[in-house]
Amino acid sequence: MIGNAGDAVAPSIDGVAAESSAGFAAVPDSFQRLWTPHRLVYIENGQQPDGDACPFCRAPELDDEQALIVARGRTAYVLLNLYPYNSGHLLVCPYRHIATYDEASPQEVAEIGELTQTAMRVLTSTSGCHGFNIGMNQGRIAGAGIAAHLHQHVVPRWALDSNFFPIVAQTKAVPRLLGEVRDEIARAWPAGSPE
């Protein structure tokens, strides 16, 4: 629910009025609020929901649907980002727990590249995206949320996916549920690519 601290009339959802924060004991500010209680585990435990366990080492041990994995290769795999920048935001990760690209073997580098190319093709066919942001943040100082395990971002982009919401409301709206997106991408992933 989005609401201004100074709203006089609380907005409603399905006819039920949302509680306005205007009367709360706090100093009003200019921020809008998008309530996302599902992120609490992330906030309470840092970037790693299972304490010290690496989520990219743990994911392959789980069921594909539970881990949001869309494809598994020999040395690397592809999963949805749990906190996406856009619908269909994928991560390509080696199975090995390595921190930087220069630690990857030639086989891992090749498969990360192959999986990235396949991800681009699948996202284009399933979502009709117009372009991509692809990249790796190496180390926490460079913006890596999980710096200890190498991962490449594949973020689909559309001509009209930018709007005022992130700038004015400091909020990113993601229009599709992760499970739906995972199922669609997994179904469209070519069989035996790479195995």
UniProtKB/TrEMBL annotation:
Residues 55-164 form the HIT domain. The active site is at H151 (tele-amp-histidine intermediate). Substrate binds at N81, H153. Its EC number is 2.7.7.53. Keywords: Nucleotide-binding, Nucleotidyltransferase, Transferase. It is an enzyme of class 2 (transferase). GO terms for molecular function: ATP:ADP adenylyltransferase activity; nucleotide binding. A motif (Histidine triad motif) lies at residues 149-153. InterPro entries: AP-4-A_phosphorylase, FHIT, HIT-like, HIT-like_sf. CDD domains: FHIT. Pfam families: HIT. This is ATP adenylyltransferase.
